[in-house]
Amino acid sequence: xxxxxxxxxxxxxxxxxxxxxxxxxxxxxxxxxxxxxxxxxxxxxxxxxxxxxxxxxxxxxxxxxxxxxxxxxxxxxxxxxxxxxxxxxxxxxxxxxxxxxxxxxxxxxxxxxxxxxxxxxxxxxxxxxxxxxxxxxxxxxxxxxxxxxxxxxxxxxxxxxxxxxxxxxxxxxxxxxxxxxxxxxxxxxxxxxxxxxxxxxxxxxxxxxxxxxxxxxxxxxxxxxxxxxxxxxxxxxxxxxxxxxxxxxxxxxxxxxxxxxxxxxxxxxxxxxxxxxxxxxxxxxxxxxxxxxxxxxxxxxxxxxxxxxxxxxxxxxxxxxxxxxxxxxxxxxxxxxxxxxxxxxxxxx
Length: 349
Prior knowledge:
There is one protein chain. Helix 2 crosses helix 4, helix 3 (about 85-95) crosses helix 4 and helix 7 crosses helix 8 (about 245-250). The chain has 11 helices and 11 strands. The protein has helices at about 55, 65-75, 85-95, 105-120, 120-140, 160-165, 215-230, 245-250, 280-285, 295-320, 325-340; strands at about 5-10, 15-20, 30-35, 40-45, 145-150, 155-160, 175-180, 190-195, 200-210, 235-240, 255-260. The longest helix is centred in the C-terminal third of the chain and has 24 residues, at about 295-320. The chain folds into 3 domains: about 1-60, no CATH class; about 60-120; about 120-320, no CATH class. It is α+β, with helices and mostly antiparallel strands. Helix content is about 40%, strand content about 20%. The protein has a 7-stranded mixed sheet with strand order 5-6-9-8-7-10-11, sandwiched between helices. Strands 1-2-3-4 form a 4-stranded antiparallel sheet, with no helix packed on it. Strand 3 and strand 4 (about 40-45) form a beta hairpin.
């Protein structure tokens, strides 16, 4: 493969191994046999000069199968945000090894490399229960739920971190809901519930996974959300206009105002503060775009890492705040004060 030639196995026996060029008219061969009574093979004959045509050299290399190529390119997929397409694999293998291949082989090699770098989809579901258990052990107060069907296959998953549960009462009583699809072979939908803290930072509340955005899955997610966070006075739930979300809110939060992010921009019976759209949910979806291609347990670890990074950053910012209000609010007050001292008051009478 390295020298752009293909070979085939002519003889493979316990004591002898013989390979030749794929072209029967070519002189290239290598023959090896066991050395005396040892298990070591010794090369007995090696004709290193090829006499085959260029047409044979440039054919699809059989020795460069998807497993071999997957091992060679797995480092390309260690960073989950990196995009390396089958066309990139075709070009790289031709440039680096002189190996030509078709699109289908490149696709299979990519799938193999992804599995080697990020884990197997099936195995990841098997690891999910112990992963969720360890999340609760390492983060006391974290709530997780895992539901399987009557054949013991995955059905639903719910996760709310302890930090989110503790911080909810210090946030505005507005919850933004959204669902986005998972880009894996098993599919599924990632459900998110989030709000904003006092400093206008995104504050994730809960995550869930289900088969799709249907009545059953949304009802299950909202039920778990209500069990975790309850219902606050004046609470509003903001989402897109998906009918299943509306049905679930009617069942689980009958007293809460449900605002469609675009339709209810002009009027709401409860306070919306500055949260007029579902943009924060879209921001979370964008931040998790690459993670949504990963096996489920690896994806959840990526999600945990992202939330932990946000908590650490926002916590450091809060610890460095020495005013009675948040830094964002303090900035607005100062700017308004500077403008106000330039105003003059006139008697209109």
